[in-house]
Fold these 2 entries.
Entry 1:
Amino acid sequence: MSIYTHKFLVVIAILTMTSDLSIEYSFPDGFMFGASTAAYQIEGAWNEDGKGESIWDRLVHSRPESVADGSNGDIACDSYHKYKEDVALIKGLNAKFYRFSISWTRIAPTGEMHKLNPKGIEYYNRLINEVLANNIEPMVTMYHWDLPQYLQDLGGWTNSIMANYFEEYAKVLFSNFGDRVKWWITINEPMQTCRGYSMQMYAPYLKLDKTGYYLAGHTQLLAHSKAYHLYNEMFRDKQKGKISISINANMYLSKNGSSKIDQDAAERANQFELGWFAHPIFKGDYPPVMRQWVDRKNKEIGRAWSTLPKFTEEEIKLIHGSADFFALNHYTSWHASHGKDLNPYCNSDAEYIGSFDDETWMGSILFWLKVVPEGLHKLLVWIKNEYNNPPLIITENGFVDDGRINDLDRIHYIKTYLNATLQAIHEDKCNIIGYIYWTLLDNFEWLDGYGYHFGIVSVDFNDSKRPRTPKASYHFFKSVIDTKKLDGQ
Ligand code: GBE
């Protein structure tokens, strides 16, 4: 990019910044700004240096038609070779945090920890050291959806033994990297993992309906808590890090604001999505409304047991309290009203109808992503009230477009969502300590392929060198980080 284009983008970014919001609030000192990526979406090098096959490698190679453009992550952003450039981009933002994930099959090709791959461990050592050398803190996600295929062949997350495999994997990560990594996310968005077992939305691309859905969630909660307790028992004293799990949640707002049955439907939807994973960790066991409704639904159809498995008393205790902070991934909001929905994205057990029929909600090129910053504000207050105001990091929040460099809609999204965050901090005293944008680089957007861009940095996928170009939103985000304000002062 020429120096002129660069200056032009900065001017545009600053003009946009000052136009539609006049915001007084500042981000508190020490507020953690960063950007996020995930191994399968950026690394490429899918079979290099001893890496084993993951469920994503298997899916994209065996069923390429399942990806919108028939593409895959074989090369992606080639970050396996270009990680230094990625780190330099985080550095250029003046961001303090880089959140990335580790590919389990690079560490151990089959997922079994007695057969480690030293070259995989070396790669993450190089990456972590590069991050630290640039005065950036790594936040490491252990699992962002790329399960070893060998473990999938054992049933994957529907087999409760996976919790033990995950604990062993976590032990290897703490032992090798925990001297330098102080922020850990065990699992990214457990609910989306479950959709890979129920409705073919992700790998392993299974259609096991609610049975696979709730089983996969149950095992992930157990896996997470085992990793957490292992850290407490073996590593915490020495390594002094923090651990959580990134829970994704839309905000469900009552469609007819004052209608009690719609309010209840929206509350149920929130409990069935965010509460599914947050309630066991921050309050203990599944949300009561989820237990009651799923059990009743199963009884009604004559199933002998509930598809929502039960924890033992001991498991409830192990899971309860197993997070040092609340890690929230949030993109958008829905309306919810009472009723039976055929929309597969809505959990039919919760009996709500989801919709986006609000003309004031700006859209995007993906049907599910509407710009509803007030939804984030309400969600942050909901979490504060529901879980006793835990320290919270927004570990993902991002906007999708067609990949333009002058991405004014993305600037608008980031600005209004950060404004909602500031309101929650200053007006509602929500204990929010960080914001990590999804994502640093345009990348392989799972089954949507390469046509949908969330990055603040563009990547030219037609050029084998995969050159990176910061977008206008990159410069805007940097100015927020530099000034701690949204108005560019
Ligand atoms: C994140 O998930 C992922 O962590 C990241 O890897 C991904 O690139 C990013 O999203 C962008 O998609 O009913 O609203 O769920 C289906 C965010 C589409 C959660 C969108 C899939 C939200 C899960 C409709 N959703 N996404 S629905």
Entry 2:
Amino acid sequence: MNIGIVCYPTFGGSGVVATELGKALAHKGHSVHFISYDQPVRLDAFSQNLYYHEVSFNNYPLFKYAPYEIALTSKIVDIVKAQKLEVIHVHYAIPHAAAAVTAKHILAREGISLKIVTTLHGTDITLVGKDQSYEPVVSYSLHESDIVTAVSESLKRDTYSNFSYNGAIHVIPNFIDFERFNKQPRDHFKKAIAPNGEKILVHTSNFRKVKRVPDVLEIYRIVASSIPAKLLLIGDGPERVAVEEACRNCEICPDVTFLGKQEAVEEILSIADLFIIPSETESFGLAALEAMACEVPVISTNTGGLPEVNIDGLTGFTSNIGDTKKMGADALKILEDGNLTQFKKQAKAQALKYKLENILPLYESLY
Ligand code: GMT
């Protein structure tokens, strides 16, 4: 098939899922055309059947805000015609779904049929999208899409309760490419980070407020007050400066490392003993799944889709938002020598359910 994919090109989960999906579809022989304002970060190598079309436009002094959605719509129309796209799959509703719907109507006037698959990822529904400045357009775009998917049962429920949409929503979870995400021998790296056999705790995020990174530090503090441990923080975003500053002023500072944005997350996860994701809202928690694929148990909140991925008492533990005391105690329970191996094994077994080979056919059958 000829498939168009519209996504954000950044490190965010929706862009990562879209890019990995596109690469896998191309590998299976579909022609995949990415449409975005920048080259998606994980679209890093030349590959047969994969194409990238940049949405570019000249700004004009009259515009306080550049009309990206119009430029995106025009680009979709152009690429559908030139590349004979049959389906356009948009990831993250705002503004991608609305742009695809307008493009579909423009093309229909020329007798060209375009099918739209809209995948909801999280904050487009739970945070940003439900704001009254977006809600009517998001609801309309869902109605006008041919297929709507959500990445968890929880996000499906949130969509029905936040929007005036009552059509079908197919739940297709995030997935893992086990060729990339698996525990790799990185003993030299582990020795450098934890020379005395300290336990290694890891957190990955885009350092937005919803990720509650200060809770990560609090959980680490509880752990480190009982056993020798190190904390690695991966990623960057609006809260990083404040969190790093707070960390500098306290006693845990020498054992906490801010690694910034990292490409080879799987290498860092390979030396980790525990992953912490204390988010306030998380529609799925791809970062947790990536950790589990590398045999790392998870301490998470019980919000959104997290309890669908991190099974309480099996792959880690889940807690109420902000209950760092319980999360710290649970972390220590997992890290006990008698428990850790079992939790690691169970985390990997759960992650295997989400392997790429299981999830890809679900999207293909919808197309
Ligand atoms: O919050 C992020 O990390 C980015 C955000 C996005 O849409 O780019 O991620 C969302 O989509 C991911 C992929 O489907 C999910 O795994 C994340 O849980 C979700 N984030 C939130 O709901 C906060």
